[in-house]
UniProtKB/TrEMBL annotation:
<dbReference type="InterPro" id="IPR023582">
    <property type="entry name" value="Impact"/>
</dbReference>
<feature type="domain" description="Impact N-terminal">
    <location>
        <begin position="22"/>
        <end position="120"/>
    </location>
</feature>
<dbReference type="InterPro" id="IPR020568">
    <property type="entry name" value="Ribosomal_Su5_D2-typ_SF"/>
</dbReference>
<protein>
    <submittedName>
        <fullName>YigZ family protein</fullName>
    </submittedName>
</protein>
<dbReference type="GO" id="GO:0006446">
    <property type="term" value="P:regulation of translational initiation"/>
</dbReference>
<dbReference type="Pfam" id="PF01205">
    <property type="entry name" value="Impact_N"/>
</dbReference>
<dbReference type="InterPro" id="IPR035647">
    <property type="entry name" value="EFG_III/V"/>
</dbReference>
<dbReference type="InterPro" id="IPR036956">
    <property type="entry name" value="Impact_N_sf"/>
</dbReference>
<dbReference type="InterPro" id="IPR020569">
    <property type="entry name" value="UPF0029_Impact_CS"/>
</dbReference>
<dbReference type="GO" id="GO:0005737">
    <property type="term" value="C:cytoplasm"/>
</dbReference>
<comment type="similarity">
    <text>Belongs to the IMPACT family.</text>
</comment>
<dbReference type="InterPro" id="IPR001498">
    <property type="entry name" value="Impact_N"/>
</dbReference>
Amino acid sequence: MSPVEKYLTVENEETFEVKIQRSLFIGIIKPLETNPSDILKGVKENYKNATHYCYAYRKVTGEEYFSDGGEPTGTAGIPILNALREKDLYNIIGIVVRYFGGIKLGVRGLIDAYHFTMEKTIEKAKIVKKIVTVNYRIKVTYKDFPNIKRELIKNFSCEIDENFGEDVVLEVKVPISLKEEFREYISKRGVEIEEYGE
């Protein structure tokens, strides 16, 4: 899959709880803004002593991953991932925590329970559209700053953070679709530029 330019994700973390055959299922969905293992660690701290922590995530790069978290193969992670795919969500992690209630659900029952829990969690969440951006740091003089800032906003729909020191350092988020045009514009202006991570 090729990287996307625009994508849907959730605005904030959302949770949903449901009891199925005496087992408590807790769905958690949140934007994937840090390492998935760090997010999972936080969930395990918040929901101690659960029987299973199952999850899936999708990134705008096309990377997908899922874990059945100790449930039988294919009964938890894939149903969670499918719920994320059905709503075409990216840069997102969906986690379902299960506290076993004493009744085994069987393969079909587990698939349905995990999918249902994530589906309902997504329904509670606020879905937002985001644009994939590339981050640049550029250094400009105080004299050039007003014109460059105005042109960047007008021509490139940039988000800009300003840092004032000896010169003005701008941290600029440029839509990925305008990356080449932006670099060409900056190089013609003779401005110092550096691309940096998220």
